[in-house]
């Protein structure tokens, strides 16, 4: 499914975003200082927009499975009960979408990345991470960007179970990068020796996506 070409409305949306990437749309050419809370070219919203490829998979907690594989000593497939037995933490952070909206002070609850790393134990040479979701979406991170203390495998937002629209039952949250790096409906996390660009990265988006550096397009 991950390699299927999107069709219909979804195809239209993908083409529009690709065209923006080619045209460098939304780039301001400014660089922001860390004291500035809103990254360059962003505007603040108070609602919580929904962005995806138009498919919102219905993943029941009963059938939920997260596979973690690749360069690890202990590959696992985690079900919902197991996920809830792992360490749980709350994080509050600002999120930034490449389509220009930012939202402050989002509270997320879930499993910190370090707890996952403790469970699977990386092998030497694991330098990149690839994510796959139930809608066929994929994205990629470096180990360094994934293993940050603020990152979570989140099942709750503002103390409530994450809604299906926002990627429930489980999504990745990597707030220091544009939100396309935060996989909704995550089903597989693979640790790799080589970088594996994902859905938007192969369609003109930046490989890393730092909002402070305005790394929108690559
Ligand atoms: N599985 C999956 N995850 C995804 C996407 C997607 O299409 N599928 N879209 C990404 C993009 S482009 C954005 S901006 C955020 C949006 O998250 P939200 O809908 O909770 O605001 O999800 C990211 N994660
Ligand atoms: Mo996005």
TrEMBL record:
<feature type="domain" description="Oxidoreductase molybdopterin-binding">
    <location>
        <begin position="57"/>
        <end position="200"/>
    </location>
</feature>
<dbReference type="InterPro" id="IPR000572">
    <property type="entry name" value="OxRdtase_Mopterin-bd_dom"/>
</dbReference>
<dbReference type="InterPro" id="IPR036374">
    <property type="entry name" value="OxRdtase_Mopterin-bd_sf"/>
</dbReference>
<protein>
    <submittedName>
        <fullName>Sulfite oxidase-like oxidoreductase</fullName>
    </submittedName>
</protein>
<dbReference type="Pfam" id="PF00174">
    <property type="entry name" value="Oxidored_molyb"/>
</dbReference>
């Amino acid at each position: 499914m991950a390699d299927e070409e999107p069709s219909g409305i979804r195809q239209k949306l993908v083409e529009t975003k690709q065209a923006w990437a080619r045209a460098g749309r939304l780039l301001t050419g400014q660089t922001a200082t860390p004291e500035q809370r809103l990254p360059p070219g962003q505007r603040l919203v108070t609602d919580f927009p929904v962005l995806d490829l138009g498919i919102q998979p219905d993943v029941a907690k009963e059938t939920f499975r997260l596979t973690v594989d690749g360069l690890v000593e202990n590959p696992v497939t985690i079900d919902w009960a197991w996920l809830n037995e792992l360490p749980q933490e709350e994080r509050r952070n600002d999120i930034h979408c490449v389509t220009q909206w930012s939202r402050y002070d989002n509270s997320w609850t879930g499993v910190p990345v370090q707890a996952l790393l403790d469970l699977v134990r990386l092998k030497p040479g694991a330098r990149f991470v690839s994510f796959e979701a139930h809608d066929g979406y994929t994205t990629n991170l470096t180990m360094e960007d994934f293993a940050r203390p603020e990152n979570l495998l989140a099942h709750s937002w503002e103390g409530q179970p994450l809604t299906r629209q926002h990627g429930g039952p489980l999504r990745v949250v990597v707030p220091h990068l544009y939100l396309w790096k935060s996989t909704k409906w995550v089903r597989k996390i693979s640790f790799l020796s080589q970088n594996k660009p994902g859905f938007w990265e192969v369609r003109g988006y930046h490989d890393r996506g730092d909002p402070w550096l305005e790394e929108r397009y690559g």
